[in-house]
Amino acid sequence: MRTLCASTLIGEVFVIGFAGLVAMKDPDLATSTVWTVSGIAMLLCVLLCGVITRPGGIQLGWALQIALIASGVVVPTMYFMGVMFAALWWASVHYGRKIDEAKARFAAQAQSAGASPDAA
User: Fold this and answer.
1) Cα(99)–Cα(53) distance, rounded to whole angstroms?
2) Do residues 20 and 34 touch, judged by C-beta distance below 8 A?
3) Which of 72, 81, 90, 113 has an alpha carbon within 20 to 30 A of 19's alpha carbon?
């Protein structure tokens, strides 16, 4: 699960950075504000890669997905991108857990086969 979720989050780093570039074109927004918000969001994505498997990591990821969708208020394209990345996040969590369960099952089977005297 960690690999899939981290890949999604790293993809979001780039999308947030590009959204920051687009948001800079808005004359109502200060460049420093845009890059402070974008920089914090990008940093959170990178830091979240390291805490995905800890308690609350997945929930923090969902909070980030909601914030990404909400950023559509400033950059309307982010509504679409946010929904797409939320779907990727769901798929990463869902299928990542299935992969982790399969790996654990295969490891248990390999261990029990190695411990059995009939194993050849």
Assistant:
1) 14
2) yes
3) 90
CA 111 to CA 113: how far, in whole Å? 5
**Would you tell me how many other CB atoms lie within 10 Å of the CB of residue 47?**
11
pLDDT score, position 27:
92
Within 10 Å of residue 62's Cβ, how many Cβ atoms?
13
Residue linked to tokens 């654990």: 104
Q: Considering only CA atoms, which of 85, 73, 96 is closest in space to residue 1? A: 96
How far is 25 from 76, CA to CA, in rounded Å?
13
Between the CA of residue 44 and those of 10, 40, 49, 57, 100, what are the distances in Å?
10, 6, 9, 11, 24
Under 8 Å between Cβ of 57 and 1 = no
Query: pLDDT of the chain along its 120 residues, tens only?
Result: 889 999 999 999 999 999 999 999 999 999 999 999 999 999 999 999 999 999 999 999 999 999 999 999 999 999 999 999 999 999 999 999 999 999 999 999 988 887 655 555
